[in-house]
Amino acid sequence: MKITLNGEVRDVEPGTTLAMLVADLAAHTGRDPRGVAVERNLEIVPKSEHASTVLEDGDRLEFVQFVGGG
Fold this sequence. Notes:
The chain is an alpha+beta fold and 70 residues long. It has one helix and five strands.
């Protein structure tokens, strides 16, 4: 099934949760998954719902990585 992540179309397996996608991306980029905010179809998804949010074909996601520093 296809989703759009930060403007790029991606294939994901049916049954993939938001938490699974965040973890997969963190593993590939080396970034801390705790610092990611997610918008799904123009609505912010609270972290408490990432594990229970199953992605659907056509979802539009935006991931924002928080960066600390001074």
